[in-house]
Design a protein that fits this description.
The chain has no helices and 14 strands. The protein is mostly beta strands and 171 residues long. The strands form five sheets. A four-stranded mixed beta sheet has the order 10-7-13-14, with no helix packed on it. A hairpin with an 8-residue loop joins strand 8 and strand 9. It starts with a strand and ends with a strand.
């Protein structure tokens, strides 16, 4: 946790040599009594310099966290979309322990650079399926344990092998 105020956020490649230029530097404002998730995402903008213009790069997206306690035997979950150019998505959470007539909780829809509101879910084990609004599957997570009292973000990320899910503990 960091104190309230404006904080510099710098992202440096894990393979960078000492003194290497950062991939991106920006500022995040943390509200008094609040918390933020900062995600390094592929940029959709164009950067201009004396050497010319370059498309892409890295940008920072800030998302305000809600760290209020979930209801008893529940957790709070949201989805964050960080893939530029990918369609808007919904995340479907389906309890893995229910009958075949199970229904899914829907988080979203969210587009690039957006986060859904937190949703209260009963503690248990879930299958997570992120789908484009046209129904096409974007990414899947199996047997995801949801612990009572937890507050998490399911982040849709781009990897070399395609879209994937990262689960971040907000609290």
């Amino acid at each position: 946790m960091v104190s309230a105020g404006v904080h510099a956020v710098t992202v440096i490649s894990s393979s960078a040599r000492t003194g290497a230029a950062p991939l991106v530097t920006d500022h995040a404002t943390v509200p008094d009594g609040g918390a933020m998730t900062v995600a390094a995402v592929a940029s959709t903008g164009v950067k201009s310099s004396a050497q010319g213009s370059v498309a892409g790069g890295i940008a920072l997206q800030m998302f305000r966290d809600d760290l209020s306690a979930p209801a008893s035997d529940h957790a709070k979950v949201r989805v964050i979309h960080t893939i530029p150019g990918a369609p808007r998505v919904n995340a479907l959470l389906t309890a893995a322990t229910l009958s075949s007539n199970k229904t899914s909780l829907v988080l979203g829809p969210v587009g690039y650079g957006q986060a859904s509101p937190y949703m209260s879910v009963l503690a248990g084990t879930y299958q997570v399926e992120v789908k484009a609004l046209n129904g096409a599957t974007v990414a899947v997570g199996h047997n995801w344990p949801v612990r009572s009292g937890s507050i998490v973000s399911i982040v849709v990320v781009e990897t070399p092998s395609g879209p994937s899910l990262e689960v971040l503990s907000d609290a």
